[in-house]
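Subject: Predicted fold for Minichromosome loss protein Mcl1 middle region domain-containing protein, 923 residues

User T.R. writes:
Posting the sequence so we have a shared reference for the thread.
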Amino acid sequence: MKIRTLKLREAHKPSPGYGAANGSSFCSILWDQQARHLVTASSSDSGISIHDALLPSTTPKILRHHRDGVTALALSPNSTCLASGSIDNSVKLYKFPGGEFETNITRFTLPIRALAFNQSGSMLAAAGDDDGIKLINTVDGSIARVLKGHKGSVTGLAFDPMGEYLASIDSMGTVLFWELQSGTILHTLKGVAPSTGLDTSLVNILSWSPDGEMLAVPGLKNDVVMYDRDTAEKVFTLRGDHLLPLCFLSWSPNGKYMATSGLDRQVLIWDVLKKQDIDRQKFEDRICCMAWKPVGNTLAVVDVSGKYGLWESVIPSSMKSPTDDIPQSLKKSNGLMLFEEEGQEPCSSGSLGDLGEDSVGESGPPSRKRIRKRSEFDEDDPAENTLDGFGLLPRRMAPKRAHYSAREHLDKGSNEELRSTAMSVRSKMQEAFQPGVTPVQPGKRRFLCYNMLGTITTMEYDGYSHIEIDFHDTSRGPRVPAMTDHFGFTMACLNENGSVFANPCKGDKNMSTLMYRPFSSWANNSEWSMRFEGEEVKVVALGVHWVAAITSLNYLRIFTEGGLQVLEFQVFDIRNGTRPSRGRLPLSPGSHLIWFGFSEEGLLSSYDSKGVLRVFTSQYGGSWLPLFSANKTKKSDENYWVVGLNASKLFCIVCKSPEVFPQVMPKPILTLLDLSFPLASSDLGADVLENEFILNNLHLFQIQKRIEESSSDDSRDTTELDDEAFSTEAAQDRCILRLIASCCNSDKLVRATELVKLLTLEKSMKGAIKLVTALKLPNLADRFNNILEERMLNETKGMPETAGVAVSQGSGSARNGTASEVQSEPSCIKSSSTTLSAPRFFKKVVNRGDQKGRNDHNLQTAREVQPEVASSGGSTELRTATAAGTQELNGTSNPFLKSSSNGPTKETTSQRPPSNPFKKSAK
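User M.O. replies:
I've generated the structure tokens; pasting them so everyone works from the same file.
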């Protein structure tokens, strides 16, 4: 094997009086998470160097806060906090990568030798020549526990990736396994590593494999010994061409390779699976620390003289990269952070860390000990739960450890299923896929959809594809002509009414697209499409009157058959057959929770580090709805610090990057931002109106819910809420009318028909009829008239023939609250209250005449509307009959009724000038 040489550059110069007697120093090196910075330190230099990895020729940033040499470094998993330990007996924290000094988080009486963060960064372990390992809460700086058990200086610390154990090693070669929940020693391995003596430049270290299954420790035979995480038994060794004991080892990010350095000044690269070395390098001085680059194929090294370098292309190109297939426990989570479910006791601290989940939305898989049977030899530990209240350690109801080897138990053959079950729970999350789709085969036709009804096939040509739709039973479906595909659709779904297609994102200009094509429709141009900016369609589905798509942002988007976005979904607990109100807190992939609280209307809300604001509402079956995305509004150098929100605005303070929170002085200015649903880019081109429509619907539901809650208390007056509900309904109707106008102008008549069914007020229905009549759409006007007639018919059937219908005085929402025996066609659009496809209209009236013979409580009576349709020249006139003995209250003027001397006037209750909802207000 060819031995190469690597040129190193000087990072730290020894100072007089620093370092070991032989002139050697222990130096540290590490990467940040994004591989943009490299941090080095030396026990002979009081400074910490932060190197720009992208511009290595630039002068590094030097942090000089220690009074003596730096002996240990640790960087939090999210690379925002740097910890350093020194010969001056202190442990300091800095902001990273800025390097601003934060605090002296703890102090010892003797020098520090080892530091380590846990997987969430909420806990820092520190140890050295003192007796004891300190577990420090990084949030408030408190000491959670001091672990005592070593007889020599502790030189190495490592938290396991699953957050259950801490491994430590001392200068005498003894390894201890600590259980974090109880703080007890699980296993003691005496003298398994070389003794380092009094040479402070030589330290014993250890390291967990990235999947947490094994602990690597330098062996006594110039080798590496792997120990099982649960039993501490030797699994295997890596033995090669090291001539002297090892002084450092480092796992590759994916756990497939390992780098080891020895006193023989060699660095060997190992294929762990094959247990053999695949490359090596010889150096002038001993390499005392190494770090794999988080991305790419590079190993950073530093020697005892303070010189560092980068070993490029460590792994041969013919082998898998060291950063490919990183274990799931180290990857970013899928965006779902778990709250406590039923059957778990609440955490005492309220910390998400008590649930076994870390604070940034990432979680490790459960360990094998959770599925083992409880042994009859188990004893309760009096030290159990002594860390309660700190919110640092996982609060898991794990059984006590049996006093026999798990390997012996498995070898008996009685519990073979336990091993397979343990491995299965650590498997990767199932990727989204489209059922019935076959992979691409060059030059061959493939399936985009294959279901019980028929098939959708495609074949790629130069620049386009040819799509065909066929039914298994030709009598069940129409003959669908072939389609030329210029989008590159990769998935589809088929039913009796139509087909839906979607394609992935292909660069910034070619966004992911969802397209629906009905087989037949009463309206022309009933096909529609949606484009998704910043997200990608993963799965599509098609049902009766609805289209659904799941995207890469974990959104379930639902559209009506006409293309109306409703953002509606339901979640069921299959085990209990219920839908609990508590459960999972959704976060954007790779983000963590920044703000959590209630809106002014009492909606539980959350804001994550990706700038997505969500609110929890019971309107959609108990779901979190995204109401705001900062990425669409903020500038690149801005961060939003959330203060609160109401029904339409987000209250925040704008901070200039890299600051993420405001300063007390100067006094920060509160900024109001409009809430906006992350809607898909509709082919209608009315995104603002669609957003207003959904926000109004959400606001109206909350008002009506408060009315229902107040109605149970007779002492509470709901007049103010009733007026607010009526105003919101009127605003929603105006918004819907504008949407109808946009649909008519874009020739989306099916969508316009769906919208008109959502109108609440009678005057709005009449305004819609006049609108489409003015646009010369007689076919659509007839449909609107039919919907109005159906509503009148439903009202007639639901009301007594000789008496009016009593409605609560002042209630703007009571119009939709009456049950009806007439059911409309199914639709996935649900208004904020119980509505029909043709809801009833009630107009409040007051009987100013004699009330004798009526009820003592003076009920209001409502006028029954009886339409009499007379067509003349394409126009429609509605006449109404008023119930005897009643007089209509003066109400809000009809903004859609134009004043005319020829038209009927007996319905008009006030002579206010009409308002035009489509006319923009003059500035």
